[in-house]
């Protein structure tokens, strides 16, 4: 039946790597690389082949097997599995590299920093302290060959072959018989008279001194070389000299050696060692201590080794977020460590945490995620963005904190290329329309316009045709001057997305109205854009065959490459105006310096909360989003004005209807669309969905002036009275300074006859006329009643007291 016996080596769940062993330490063991058959995870396998006539070596190997299996300490080589047969011994440990091989490889790559060496020596001394003070064991083999390094750069103490008990109950130290190991024995071992006066740790501390010398100077040629410290750091030399002193009684205990080196100015007193010590005890630290540690960790990561950050810091950060409620403080160090990961590792370790963070209701975490989205957006795939991230991000558009609304708008520049048709062309446009129309912060309205100009190339052709012209036209009537500039730049950035008919009938009339804007920066950009559009029209007029080439992008599908012009035309707005936004809506003046030509007053020091501050330089208008009372009065009228795309204008004057039909062909397209809807009641076009957004603000809702306008408060200055960062005002008066934003908007609405007429003004005047007529009738009726009473009183005379009225 022995024929059916199983081979234990073949059934062992670990297998050796076919590569030859590297840097095996002197002694009975041979170090191999290996992996676990089930998972493929890397391991190290120490192999000892039993040879006939080597019973002493076999007993040493079996003793080492037993010691390694029973000793558990973070700084001692971690045992995973083992196999013992009559022919061999296999010991499986964590994947490690011999210290000699590791130092050689790092020397070729530039060498180890003192920070790494200080922590490595700290770990070895701590392992010796555990053996001597807690276990009463003498290692008896401390040298370069007994130290190994794992993938995180942690030093592990191995080589337990010649270990013995310090209490003497297990006999004396075993004989090594290997010259490479015996050269590290202290000098007192050759003198039997000194055995009675030495401490139990004296021999291991001498060997520790030899290890320190080899780490900084290379292989130890002979014991006499220990007298010359060589490259050992000056802060470590006094403590090193104690280790290699001739008197074994003076050599310090490993615990006291650590205490001496951790003293102020000591070799092991540095940020790297303190960080590692904190990470080892992080599970028992208070939440306040963890918060402070993670806040300071990001500053130190740049000086830490890459392997340490990937394999030790990163797992602790993930654990702290998952189970420790660390919150937003882990984001900055987490993304900094993420730079060291490959794309596959990033997907496995960082992305699941990021997706979970987006669902958090913590405002600090949400705003930090939005601010640092550029660091991880490349690793997010489109299904993840559309189903797990975008639904949470859009909540920021409705947040009461303006800083979150601003960062949400800016994050759309990164998310737009990954959004699907519905999220980009419907959901996002709805929020942008509401922000541009109703947000009380001028800089946020400005950044919304800028963002729309930058992502315009990703929109579908239908959405571009319906949204861009209306949105940028509305921006040109914003009372906030940078918003008007952004509207002009938006037209310029998306110039290739408009037909020649739209350029002539819709865009140029809007831009020409801005040539008399009170702000010079607006006028300059308007003239620049007008020249650009006129040159296109002129070139097509000279050569009509160029029309197809000029309009090739108008009906083209969304394409990332079409947005190249946006970067050159509107690139200033994201850096300059976004920092301007920060100054206006954040309480702390730590935002990036504004690069725009429109500087604002910095936020005052000491405001505790990021409450939005009003913009004193720009006179505000009581638009439909500013006063709730006026919005209630004009809700019906403004709603009707918003739905000019699909309303039946048959009740309007025939003359106005014919003018609209002559200026462009919008009305014919809308009538065709309405006819199609009438023939198919169950079908809802996308345009009808767009028109249903008037409750939250739509692109077609124009800037409407209140009637009559309220005078500004005493002391209010117009926008033209401020110097917005341009050249110093000269003695010569600005011919446009007398124009106000209110006059400009009113004049512009009168000049624009291509669809944005202010129908509300007509109905408001009609209501006022009816109210005046009713008031006059009541006054006449009152006078008639008074006249009749006077006539009766005069005819009958005064009545006497106590008499009864008979009639």
Automatic annotation (TrEMBL):
<keyword id="KW-0931">ER-Golgi transport</keyword>
<protein>
    <recommendedName>
        <fullName>N-terminal kinase-like protein</fullName>
    </recommendedName>
</protein>
<keyword id="KW-0597">Phosphoprotein</keyword>
<keyword id="KW-0333">Golgi apparatus</keyword>
<feature type="compositionally biased region" description="Pro residues">
    <location>
        <begin position="601"/>
        <end position="617"/>
    </location>
</feature>
<keyword id="KW-0963">Cytoplasm</keyword>
<dbReference type="GO" id="GO:0030126">
    <property type="term" value="C:COPI vesicle coat"/>
</dbReference>
<dbReference type="GO" id="GO:0005793">
    <property type="term" value="C:endoplasmic reticulum-Golgi intermediate compartment"/>
</dbReference>
<feature type="compositionally biased region" description="Basic and acidic residues">
    <location>
        <begin position="781"/>
        <end position="794"/>
    </location>
</feature>
<dbReference type="InterPro" id="IPR011009">
    <property type="entry name" value="Kinase-like_dom_sf"/>
</dbReference>
<dbReference type="InterPro" id="IPR000719">
    <property type="entry name" value="Prot_kinase_dom"/>
</dbReference>
<dbReference type="InterPro" id="IPR051177">
    <property type="entry name" value="CIK-Related_Protein"/>
</dbReference>
<feature type="region of interest" description="Disordered">
    <location>
        <begin position="590"/>
        <end position="807"/>
    </location>
</feature>
<feature type="domain" description="Protein kinase">
    <location>
        <begin position="14"/>
        <end position="314"/>
    </location>
</feature>
<keyword id="KW-0206">Cytoskeleton</keyword>
<comment type="similarity">
    <text>Belongs to the protein kinase superfamily.</text>
</comment>
<feature type="region of interest" description="Disordered">
    <location>
        <begin position="14"/>
        <end position="35"/>
    </location>
</feature>
<dbReference type="InterPro" id="IPR011989">
    <property type="entry name" value="ARM-like"/>
</dbReference>
<feature type="compositionally biased region" description="Basic and acidic residues">
    <location>
        <begin position="764"/>
        <end position="774"/>
    </location>
</feature>
<dbReference type="GO" id="GO:0005813">
    <property type="term" value="C:centrosome"/>
</dbReference>
<feature type="compositionally biased region" description="Polar residues">
    <location>
        <begin position="668"/>
        <end position="691"/>
    </location>
</feature>
<dbReference type="GO" id="GO:0016192">
    <property type="term" value="P:vesicle-mediated transport"/>
</dbReference>
<dbReference type="GO" id="GO:0004672">
    <property type="term" value="F:protein kinase activity"/>
</dbReference>
<feature type="compositionally biased region" description="Acidic residues">
    <location>
        <begin position="632"/>
        <end position="656"/>
    </location>
</feature>
<feature type="compositionally biased region" description="Pro residues">
    <location>
        <begin position="18"/>
        <end position="28"/>
    </location>
</feature>
<dbReference type="InterPro" id="IPR016024">
    <property type="entry name" value="ARM-type_fold"/>
</dbReference>
<keyword id="KW-0677">Repeat</keyword>
<dbReference type="Pfam" id="PF00069">
    <property type="entry name" value="Pkinase"/>
</dbReference>
<keyword id="KW-0175">Coiled coil</keyword>
<dbReference type="GO" id="GO:0005524">
    <property type="term" value="F:ATP binding"/>
</dbReference>
<comment type="function">
    <text>Regulates COPI-mediated retrograde protein traffic at the interface between the Golgi apparatus and the endoplasmic reticulum. Involved in the maintenance of the Golgi apparatus morphology.</text>
</comment>
<keyword id="KW-0813">Transport</keyword>
């Amino acid at each position: 039946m022995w024929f059916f016996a199983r081979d234990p080596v073949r059934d062992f769940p670990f297998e050796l790597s076919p590569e030859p062993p590297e840097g095996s330490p002197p002694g009975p063991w041979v170090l191999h690389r290996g992996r676990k058959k089930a998972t493929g995870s890397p391991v190290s396998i120490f192999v000892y082949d039993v040879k006939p006539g080597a019973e002493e070596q076999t007993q040493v190997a079996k003793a080492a097997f037993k010691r390694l299996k029973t000793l558990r300490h973070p700084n001692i080589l971690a045992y995973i599995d083992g196999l013992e047969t009559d022919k061999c011994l296999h010991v499986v440990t964590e994947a490690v590299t011999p210290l000699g091989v590791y130092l050689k490889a790092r020397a070729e790559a530039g060498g180890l920093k003192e920070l790494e060496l200080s922590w490595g020596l700290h770990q070895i001394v701590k392992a010796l302290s555990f053996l001597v003070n807690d276990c009463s064991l003498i290692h008896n083999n401390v040298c370069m060959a007994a130290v190994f390094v794992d993938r995180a750069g942690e030093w592990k103490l191995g080589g337990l072959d010649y270990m013995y008990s310090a209490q003497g109950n297990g006999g004396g130290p075993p004989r090594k018989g290997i010259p490479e190991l015996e050269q590290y024995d202290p000098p007192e071992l050759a003198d039997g008279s000194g055995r009675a006066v030495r401490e139990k740790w004296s021999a291991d501390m001498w060997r520790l001194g030899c290890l320190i010398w080899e780490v900084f100077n290379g292989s130890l040629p002979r014991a006499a070389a220990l007298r010359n410290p060589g490259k050992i750091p000056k802060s470590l030399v006094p403590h090193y000299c104690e280790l290699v002193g001739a008197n074994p009684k003076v050599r310090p205990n490993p615990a006291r050696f650590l205490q001496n080196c951790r003293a102020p100015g000591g070799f092991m007193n540095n940020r790297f060692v303190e960080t590692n010590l904190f990470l080892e005890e992080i599970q028992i630290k208070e939440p306040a201590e963890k918060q402070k540690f993670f806040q300071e960790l990001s500053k130190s990561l740049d000086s830490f080794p890459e392997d340490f950050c990937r394999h030790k810091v990163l797992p602790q950060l993930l654990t702290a977020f998952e189970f420790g409620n660390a919150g937003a403080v882990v984001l900055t160090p987490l993304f900094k460590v993420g730079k060291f990961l490959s794309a596959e590792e990033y997907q496995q370790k960082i992305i699941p945490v990021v997706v979970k963070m987006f669902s958090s209701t913590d405002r600090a975490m949400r705003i930090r995620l939005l601010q640092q989205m550029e660091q991880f957006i490349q690793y997010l795939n489109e299904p993840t963005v559309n189903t797990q991230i975008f639904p949470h991000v859009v909540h920021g558009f409705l947040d009461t904190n303006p800083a979150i609304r601003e960062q949400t708008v800016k994050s759309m520049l990164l998310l737009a290329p990954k959004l699907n048709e519905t999220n980009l062309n419907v959901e996002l446009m709805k929020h942008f329309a509401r922000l541009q129309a109703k947000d009380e912060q001028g800089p946020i309205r400005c950044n919304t316009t800028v963002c729309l100009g930058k992502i315009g190339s990703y929109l579908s052709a239908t959405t571009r045709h319906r949204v861009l012209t209306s949105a940028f036209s509305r921006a040109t009537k914003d009372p906030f001057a940078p918003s008007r500039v952004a509207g002009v730049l938006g037209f310029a950035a998306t110039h290739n997305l408009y037909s020649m008919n739209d350029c002539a009938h819709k865009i140029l009339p809007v831009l020409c109205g801005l040539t008399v804007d009170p702000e010079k920066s607006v006028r300059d950009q308007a003239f620049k854009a007008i020249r650009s559009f006129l040159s296109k029209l002129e070139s097509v007029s000279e050569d009509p065959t160029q029309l197809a080439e000029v309009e090739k992008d108008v009906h083209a599908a969304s394409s990332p490459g079409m947005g190249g012009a946006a970067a050159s035309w509107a690139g200033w707005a994201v850096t300059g105006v976004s920092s301007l936004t920060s100054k206006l809506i954040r309480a702390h003046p730590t935002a990036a310096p504004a690069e725009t030509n429109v500087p604002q007053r910095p936020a005052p020091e000491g405001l505790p909360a990021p409450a939005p501050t009003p913009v004193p330089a720009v006179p505000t208008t009581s638009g439909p989003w500013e006063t709730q009372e006026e919005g209630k009065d004009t809700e019906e009228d403004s709603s009707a004005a918003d739905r000019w795309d699909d309303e039946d204008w048959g009740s309007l004057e025939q003359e106005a209807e014919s003018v609209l039909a002559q200026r462009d062909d919008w009305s014919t397209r809308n009538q065709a669309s309405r006819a199609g809807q009438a023939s198919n009641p169950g079908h809802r076009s996308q345009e009808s969905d767009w028109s249903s957004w008037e409750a939250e603000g739509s692109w077609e809702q124009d800037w409407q002036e209140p009637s009559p306008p309220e005078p500004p408060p005493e002391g209010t200055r117009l926008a033209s009275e401020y110097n917005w960062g341009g050249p110093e005002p000269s003695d010569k008066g600005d011919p446009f300074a007398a124009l106000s934003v209110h006059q400009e908007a009113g004049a512009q609405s009168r000049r624009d006859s291509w669809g944005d007429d202010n129908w509300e003004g007509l109905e408001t005047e009609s209501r006022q006329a009816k109210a005046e007529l009713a008031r006059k009738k009541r006054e006449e009726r009152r006078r008639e009643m008074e006249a009749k009473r006077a006539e009766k009183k005069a005819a009958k005379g005064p009545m006497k007291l106590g008499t009864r009225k008979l009639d």
